What does this fold into?
Amino acid sequence: MMSEPLLRIENLSIEYVVQEGTIKAVRNASFDINEGEIVCLVGESGSGKSTIGLAIAGALPENAIIRGGKIIFQDHDLINQRARTCSKKEIMMIFQDPAASINPLFTIGEIMSDVIKTHLKVHNPNAIKDLALRMLRRVGLPDPERMLRSYPHELSGGMLQRAVIATALSVNPKLLIADEPTTMLDVTLQAQILELLLNLKNDFGLSILLITHNLGIAAEMGGRIIVMYCGEIVEEASSNELIRNPLHPYTKGLLECIPRTSIRYSKLKHIPGIMPDLRNPPSGCVFYGRCSEAIQKCRMIKPSMVQVYENHTVACHLYSRGMR
It folds into this structure.
C-alpha cells in the first residue's frame, strides 16, 4: 500500500489584487511531494512558482487571495489557519537573497535564538546556544562561535546563506522550500550550496521544494521536475526523463537556452516573445503566442494534462489522443 504524500497541492488558484486589476498568478496547479523527495519547480520569472512556495509557507502578501484549491500537508489543509499554526515549524523557507530576508539589526545568534524559542519552545540559553552552534557546524561554517556574534553584513553571501539554512533546519522541519537559493551567489558557491542541500536532505530525511528558473540546476538536484508557465503547470517528469526527452515546446525552449561548451554559438538562443498579461490570460494554451509548434486548436482550447510515458505528463495538444 502506497503511503500518502507529505504535501499535496490540489487545483490551487491564487490571484494578486493590484491597482491595475487582478493578476491570476496561479491557476489550477496540482502536484505532490513525497517524504524525502526533491521536487524542482521550474519556470521563468512571473510563472507563478514563487507564489506557490509562499502559499505553502503561509507567507503570501496581503494583496494575495487564494481563489480555490487545497494545500494538504500531513492530512491538514493549510488554507485553514488552525492547521497552518499546527504545521508552522514543520515547513521552513529560504530565499534567494539572504540579506533581504533577515533583520540586519540582530546578530546571527539572536536571529537563531528567536527562531528556536518561537518554534521549539526552548528557553534555556545554554541549550539554545548548543543547538545553534551544532547547526552552524553542520552547514560547514568555520568558527561558529564568531558566527553567532556576527551581524549579517559581516558575512559573505555564501556564508550568510549557510547561516540562513542552519536557522531553518534548527527547528527540524519536514519540508524545506528553497526559493532560488543560489541566484545571488557566484558559480562556485552555487555548486557548494546545492551539494549542501543534497547532503542535508539525506542526513535529516528532508523533503525539498526547490524553486528555480534554471533547468541545469534542477537537473543537478535530481528528483522530479515540474515546469510552470504563465501560472500553469505544463509538464512533469523525473529529472533524467525530462532532460533526456522534453515534450512541451516551452520545456524544449528552456533547455535550448542553456549554453553548452560543446557547441559553438553565433549568439545564445532565447524563447521569442513575452509572457501574456496575467490579468487576462489566454483562453487556450498559455504558450500559444510563443510556440513554434502551435496548431489552430491551441488558440481556443486549453490542453489537459495527459500521461505520455510512465510518470511523464504534459499539457499540450500535440500529445492529445490521435495527434501523435
Notes: DSSP finds twelve helices and twelve strands in the chain. The radius of gyration is 21 Å. The chain has one domain: 7-319.
